[in-house]
Design a protein that fits this description.
Length: 242
């Protein structure tokens, strides 16, 4: 049996949930297909939970624009829906005089991106704010903060459900075929494979989004959609007293 839906959203991470909550406010027939047993089990629950200000992104890029706009929207959302968060600010430090020029470049870039509250601070101000950090200068970003990412996703999931979006878990999208103005979406669940017909497909499959785009026949290299993974490391610091 084939089901018809207006919008199929692939992936229930922070992005898919936010899209579902907003679209469901505007229209019926929003379906979210998620391969895991519930929402938010991948990158959206394995990150630094920072509300970024929008300092580093290339001027004029969508990332720069959306990050600056999103910063205040996210604080408003957290306030309105009771998501734990703190606007604690961030200091980017220059550990030697050679790095001060880089700080000044970030200050200029951030300002051009529309981050209006950045300012350079002295060694003493850095030390006063964070005595455990040794730096020759710093740049203070007051609108950077932190939030509880899982609480954010719970709020978005609740809103999307309340507004009529349907969530189908343990259901992986394994094929996409353009048919007329919509798509045949091939899905795999515990019962095997079947398909649904969707008027619009939204790809919010996170680290799998290039493969999902590939399923729709998009040339990943030509479109610039191929993902390149980078490895990073987190350090956790304790004070000498433990
Ligand atoms: C180490 C690290 C730190 C970060 N720190 C921050 C930070 O401090 N602040 C910040 O704003 N951002 C941060 N980010 C980025 C942020 O976490 C991501 O941009 C965000 O979580 C992406 O959300 P998403 O919904 O696109 O992806 P995901 O959370 O990965 O969700 C994608 C979903 O799609 C599902 N899916 C994939 N393929 C299919 C399929 N074929 N069928 C059905 N479902 C599918 C997956 O199961 C998953 O649930 C960080 C990222 C990393 C890696």
């Amino acid at each position: 049996m084939s089901i018809d839906v207006d919008v199929a959203i692939i992936g229930a991470g922070a992005v898919g949930l936010a899209v579902a909550a907003e679209l469901a406010r505007q229209q019926k027939g929003v379906f979210v297909l998620e391969k895991n047993q519930t929402f938010g089990l991948e990158t959206s629950s394995r990150n630094s939970e920072v509300i970024h200000a929008g300092i580093y992104y290339p001027e004029g890029s969508l990332k720069a624009r959306f990050c600056v706009e999103g910063n205040s929207l996210l604080y408003d959302f957290c306030e309105k829906y009771g998501v734990d968060h703190r606007r604690l600010g961030k200091i980017i430090v220059a550990t030697d005089s050679g790095e001060v020029e880089k700080l000044e470049e970030f200050l200029e870039l951030g300002r051009r991106n529309g981050v209006t509250d950045l300012r350079l601070i002295s060694r003493n101000e850095v030390r006063h704010t964070e005595p455990n950090v040794e730096a020759v200068a710093g740049m203070l970003s007051p609108s950077t903060g932190i939030l509880d990412a899982h609480a954010l996703m719970r709020a978005l999931y609740g809103l999307a459900r309340e507004r009529g979006a349907d969530f189908v878990f343990e259901t992986e999208v394994v094929g996409l075929e353009k048919v007329g103005t919509g798509y045949d979406v091939e899905i795999m669940d515990r019962e095997g494979t079947s398909s649904i017909r969707a008027g619009i497909v939204i790809n919010s499959a996170g680290l799998n989004s290039d493969r999902v785009a590939g399923l729709a026949g998009i040339d990943l290299t030509q479109a610039g959609y191929r993902l390149h993974y980078c490895k990073g490391e987190y350090f956790s610091l304790n004070s000498p007293e433990g």
